[in-house]
């Protein structure tokens, strides 16, 4: 096969010297594979198989679990630390959890690549994550419908919450105002003034896909925020 652009999403040890990996690839979406020998001391492939580092890979096998055959670096890893690193870990955990194996998601790959470029800058993190989340929701046909359950327009003066069953919005006393939701419907996901509502909507939309098990990366983000608040007093 032709070498495929890829990023490592998740890696865990397998047997004595190998690893089970989840990769995000350009044309085949999430690929699960065995990387043989990468845990062996001195393995050159071990240094290439790192999070946030662009690679070219090939694999073999007909089943859901492939066998990696080639891993070549194609650039430097994104230099992430602190909150930027936690945002990257969140993106990797999200994609590992919700993307079906081998569902083509070229737009998700493009937004993931753009996100890695944005994460080192604090002012670019929220918007890049929202764009990635929206691409994931679109790929899984799970993007909210910005109407009421009957398909009617949202009242700009009303307040609404997302109903998971219909993927539409229902009246809610403490929900998001209809004017904001109509702006999001027009593609305003990364506008600075809509950052809070955009995050709330994507989180609500992703919740059924993630299930009850909490995201480890989200827990780490909460812990970081708590340490920062404690340090400011």
From TrEMBL:
It holds the Pfam family RecO_C. Residues 4-72 form the DNA replication/recombination mediator RecO N-terminal domain. Keywords: DNA damage, DNA recombination, DNA repair. Signal peptide: none annotated. InterPro entries: DNA_rep/recomb_RecO_N, NA-bd_OB-fold, RecO, RecO_C. Belongs to the RecO family. Involved in DNA repair and RecF pathway recombination. This is DNA repair protein RecO. It comes from Halomonas pelophila. The lineage of its organism: Bacteria, Pseudomonadati, Pseudomonadota, Gammaproteobacteria, Oceanospirillales.
């Amino acid at each position: 096969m032709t070498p495929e652009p890829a990023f490592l999403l998740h890696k865990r040890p397998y047997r004595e010297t190998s690893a089970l990996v989840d990769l995000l690839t350009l044309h085949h979406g999430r690929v699960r594979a065995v990387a043989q020998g990468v845990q062996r001391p001195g393995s050159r492939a071990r240094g290439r198989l790192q999070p946030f580092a662009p690679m070219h890979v090939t694999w073999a096998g007909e089943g859901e679990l492939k066998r990696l055959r080639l891993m070549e670096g194609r650039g430097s890893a994104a230099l992430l630390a602190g909150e930027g690193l936690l945002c990257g870990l969140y993106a990797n955990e999200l994609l590992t959890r919700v993307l079906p194996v081998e569902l083509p998601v070229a737009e998700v790959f493009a937004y993931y690549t753009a996100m890695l470029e944005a994460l080192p800058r604090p002012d670019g993190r929220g918007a890049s994550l929202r764009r990635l989340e929206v691409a994931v929701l679109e790929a899984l046909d799970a993007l909210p419908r910005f109407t009421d359950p009957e398909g009617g327009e949202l009242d700009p003066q009303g307040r609404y919450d997302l109903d998971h069953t219909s993927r539409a919005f229902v009246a809610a006393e403490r929900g998001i105002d209809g004017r904001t939701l109509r702006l999001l419907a027009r593609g305003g996901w990364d506008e600075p003034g809509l950052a809070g509502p955009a995050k709330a909507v994507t989180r609500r939309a992703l919740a059924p896909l993630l299930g009850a098990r909490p995201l480890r990366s989200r827990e780490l983000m909460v812990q970081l925020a708590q340490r920062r608040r404690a340090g400011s007093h």
